[in-house]
Each structure stands twice: as structure tokens, then as C-alpha cells.
Amino acid sequence: MDIVEYTKFLITSIATDKDMVSVKEIGSDENCIRLEVLIKETDMGSVIGKSGMNAKAIRTLVQAYSYLHDKKKVLINIEAF
Description:
By secondary structure, the chain is an alpha+beta fold. Helix content is about 40%, strand content about 30%. The protein has one domain: GMP Synthetase, Chain A, domain 3, CATH 3.30.300. A hairpin with a 3-residue loop joins strand 1 and strand 2.
């Protein structure tokens, strides 16, 4: 499982409309991976969480996964469509 699949797994476990979740890598260099997460607007509140706590937890888990496998920093951009 790569970092995109892992991130999608985490987001779909929170989102109510699982078919509308899209995660893709939008850029990478030698030290950093950039991911873009697109979710339905109605799921934005549950994915971000109160005061951004869910988003922070997702970022922490994805960063830990990356350090175990790629040893790169991960930047996650969460947007609604």
C-alpha cells in the first residue's frame, strides 16, 4: 500500500460518501510529497473535525506512515468539490 492508498483509506473511513473521495499526488521532490484530497462538501465538516482535530490526526498518521516507508515530509491539502 502506498501513501496515496493509505490516505484514501483514512479519509474514506471518516467520509459518508465514500465514492466521492479522491486522493492524488500533485507533486514530489527529494524531501517532500504533496497530496491533494478532494471530498464532497457535505463531508468537509466530519473530515476536518472540530477545530481541525480530525485533519490534524490524519496528517499525523500519514506523516508517520511516510517516515516508516519513504522518509519524506508529507503536505496534505484537503478541499471540497
